[in-house]
Automatic annotation (TrEMBL):
Species of provenance: marine metagenome
Entry-linked PROSITE patterns: ACT (PS51671), HOMOSER_DHGENASE (PS01042)
Protein name: Homoserine dehydrogenase
SUPFAM superfamilies assigned: ACT-like, Glyceraldehyde-3-phosphate dehydrogenase-like, C-terminal domain, NAD(P)-binding Rossmann-fold domains
Keywords, in A-Z order: Amino-acid biosynthesis, Methionine biosynthesis, NADP, Oxidoreductase, Threonine biosynthesis
Associated pathway: Amino-acid biosynthesis; L-threonine biosynthesis; L-threonine from L-aspartate: step 3/5; Amino-acid biosynthesis; L-methionine biosynthesis via de novo pathway; L-homoserine from L-aspartate: step 3/3
Family: Belongs to the homoserine dehydrogenase family.
Amino acid sequence: PFEVVNHPEIDVVLELIGGTGVTKKLVETAIKNGKHVITANKALIAKHGNKLIQFANKNKVRLLFEASVAGGIPIIKSLEQGLSANKIESLAGIINGTGNFILTEMKEKNRDFDDVLKEAQALGYAEADPTFDVEGIDAAQKLAILAAIAFGTELQFDKVFTKGISNITTEDIKYATELGYTIKHLGIAKRVGNGIELRVHPTLISNEELIANVNGVMNAVLVKGDALGTSLYYGAGAGEEATASSVIADLIDIINNQTSNHILGWKSQEKLTVIDTESIDSEYYLRLLVSNMKGVLAKITGIFHQYNVSIEELIQKQIDENNNAHIVIIT
């Protein structure tokens, strides 16, 4: 690979190796040698993008990474160019196809998590070690990139709150459906005052929302801007052709000398700090296993009242002959 990045007749390097070890050195060497770089490597950009983009700007070359987020969906170009007249207020995305496939199968076929995960691995959607996908690390890397572009901040992958889907059960899926919701694993970035929220976690979405109906391995990103309002970007989030589509689009941008400055923290006019998760106001879903006895529900609602938490919806159902019950609450 170093023969390529050091070759005097090569102008553009496409890095599709992955990882953050030797690839970081390859990209740095290519930039140092005055070569443009196109990468699909979300981990590299999320972890080292701040310094790499600065280094590219210093050397007057381009570092483009459309394929690093949501596969073939041109979401980075949309944020940088198509939505450039907007102040982005928020974005929410299904940006990991593996997790979305698992949740879709759990809902549509009443299958449990472990069963669907095994199929996902057999189909090649999930790795032998699925941690990056099912625990939200992959989505957090992509969210960090989207948020940096959307809000003009530095990449802040280490500050993304991350919660996976491995603890979601068929009971959770069933109760969410009964209440009119679909569970999706969302990456959410939101502007709040002088700060931003960065979080990846399972989310209950009303079945009436378009993004609730994004199923299988497909990806989608919902963006809210002050001028356009809400727009949805949907498509294949992975696969050879989807990734190639975005990589070649970046290559065409370089050939056509189209500018894409990646306006990150050092060019931003705002200093937006990431809000601590404990300070975020949000609705919550809770499923409690209780003894189905007189007074239990009153005690639970009393605790909610004590801490000034309102209850929006509630379901109580006995689940076995031992007088155990589920109480499901949405705040």
